[in-house]
Amino acid sequence: QLVESGGGLVQAGGSLRLACVYSGFTLDYYAIGWFRQAPGKEREGVACLSTSHGRTYLARSVQDRVTISTDTAKNTVYLQINDLKTVDTAVYYCAAGIPPVGVEDYNLGFPGMYDYWGQGTQVTVSS
Q: Which among 49, 72, 99, 122 is most buried, taking Cβ atoms within 10 Å?
């Protein structure tokens, strides 16, 4: 289970920290990440990590403005987004999945790799 929180309405230039509390699995085996979907657009990876493979994915459109972090004691993954822009407006989802075995260059940010999804949290950035 994954439960997101922290979304809301924020002015452009502001910051948000989203939180995802996960249960039922461990990050020793599962990759976990943040995705977003704006109206009329496909779901896209924002920031993902696989601690078992030591890999992190950051979308190019946000890589200078986001940080993904974990607190395993709290079973929580965070997404810090700074300098928010109106184009960041979307529903943000937390997801978990097992990375493919024997594939070295898999795309950690590909939504199809993830099997478990949260309900999403709305982020709206006003100009």
A: 49
Q: Characterise 72 by phi-psi region: left (phi > 0), alpha (psi -120 to 50), beta (else).
A: alpha
Q: What is the DSSP code string of 13-61?
A: T--EEEEEEE-SS-TTT-EEEEEEE-TTS--EEEEEEETTTTEEEE-TT
Q: What is each CA distance from 71 to 4, 36, 77, 88, in whole angstroms?
A: 14, 21, 6, 25
Q: Please write the tens of the pLDDT for every residue from 34-91.
A: 999 999 999 999 999 998 889 999 999 999 999 999 999 999 999 999 999 999 999 9
Strands 2-5 and 16-22: antiparallel
Q: Judge contact between 20 and 34, C-beta under 8 A.
A: yes
pLDDT tens-digit profile of 80-94? 999 999 999 999 999
